[in-house]
């Protein structure tokens, strides 16, 4: 049952050098820098996103993800979910409006996998970059690099998938789109959506809590993904795998790393999900084909390089 969560709102990533990170996220990936705050954090967005920002970069000693945020319908939903999270057993932290520039108050909680998530109802909306909301052109001129359109999802590694699934299903109202099951009937990967997308967040079983696999950004076409691959080579950016196709979600994809070692994905396509759809199930012994449909095998980096 939907509980009023609309979509991913933002992700805050730790990077080792903010200037190197900007050369990657702004100049190579094509996100638009919109602000910096007194903490030194940099705010960016994809050009189709209406909210003021969707990516926050924070310089730190270790790379990884600080938190992922989801936007809810209104303040009443936010307050209801606050109580529901407490009832579930989560410790919930209230974060005042303005702690992130242009964002209203947030509530933050830790999932059983150890990852920090937050919910918010209000964020300044600046509209689609360069085209606005009134008689808009097809796309803005002057975009850089890959021309990333939006922050789409995160894939996270952690230990307690069952309780995390229960949290996201029963408290937050997410649907299970796809899953990977082992021979003993245990779920070892789960792809969850709060919308009609193939997934808005995903989890893979891992013995350590709170590990970050990748943040993903949407491109419009397969040609755009191929061009992203060219740009990765032109800039000597560290590549993981691709361009290729997923079996899970059927999206077309390429994976690569920012200068701090955080993995990124850009992709196009992907399935649509409706609430009456049954989850798609993959067997764990078919995981290679499920992740990389063409090669039908996983590379070691994809499984082991985490931040």
UniProtKB/TrEMBL annotation:
Pfam families: Diox-like_N, Glyoxalase
GO molecular function: catechol 2,3-dioxygenase activity; ferrous iron binding
Cofactor entry: Fe(2+)
Keyword Iron part of the UniProt annotation: yes
EC number: 1.13.11.2
InterPro entries found in the cross-reference section: Catechol_2-3_dOase (IPR017624), Glyas_Bleomycin-R_OHBP_Dase (IPR029068), Glyas_Fos-R_dOase_dom (IPR004360), GlyoxalaseI/FosfomycinResist (IPR050383), VOC_core (IPR037523), Xdiol_ring_cleave_dOase_1/2 (IPR000486), XylE-like_N (IPR054560)
Catalytic activity, as annotated: catechol + O2 = (2Z,4E)-2-hydroxy-6-oxohexa-2,4-dienoate + H(+)
Domain of life: Bacteria
Residues annotated as domain VOC: 7-122, 150-269
UniProt KW keywords: Aromatic hydrocarbons catabolism, Dioxygenase, Iron, Metal-binding, Oxidoreductase, Repeat
Family (UniProt): Belongs to the extradiol ring-cleavage dioxygenase family.
Oligomeric and partner information: Homotetramer.
Name of the protein in question: Metapyrocatechase
């Amino acid at each position: 049952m939907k509980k009023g969560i609309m979509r991913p709102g933002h992700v805050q990533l730790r990077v080792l050098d903010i200037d190197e990170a900007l050369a990657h996220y702004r100049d190579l990936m094509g996100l638009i820098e919109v602000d910096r705050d007194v903490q030194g954090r940099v705010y960016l967005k994809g050009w189709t996103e209406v909210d003021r920002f969707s990516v926050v970069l924070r310089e730190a000693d270790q790379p990884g993800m600080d938190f992922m945020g989801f936007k809810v319908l209104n303040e009443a939903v936010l307050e209801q979910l606050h109580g529901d999270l407490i009832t579930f057993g989560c410790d919930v932290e209230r974060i005042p409006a303005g702690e992130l520039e242009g964002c209203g108050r947030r509530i933050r909680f830790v999932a059983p996998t150890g990852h920090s998530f937050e919910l918010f109802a209000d964020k300044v909306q600046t509209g689609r970059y360069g085209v606005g909301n009134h008689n808009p052109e097809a796309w803005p001129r002057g975009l850089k690099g890959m021309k990333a359109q939006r922050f789409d999802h995160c894939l996270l590694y952690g230990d307690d998938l069952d309780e995390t699934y229960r949290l996201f299903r029963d408290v937050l109202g997410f649907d299970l789109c796809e899953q990977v099951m082992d021979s003993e009937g245990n779920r070892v990967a789960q792809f969850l959506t709060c919308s009609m997308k193939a997934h808005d967040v995903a989890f893979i079983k891992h013995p350590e809590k709170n590990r970050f696999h990748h943040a993903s950004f949407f491109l419009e076409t397969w040609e755009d993904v191929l061009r992203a691959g060219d740009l990765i080579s032109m800039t000597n950016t560290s590549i993981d795998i691709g361009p290729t196709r997923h079996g899970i979600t059927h999206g077309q994809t390429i994976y690569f790393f920012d200068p701090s070692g955080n993995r990124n994905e850009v992709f196009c396509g992907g399935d649509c999900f409706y609430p009456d759809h049954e989850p798609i199930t993959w067997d764990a012994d078919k995981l290679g084909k499920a992740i990389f449909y063409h090669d039908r095998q996983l590379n070691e980096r994809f499984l082991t390089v985490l931040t």
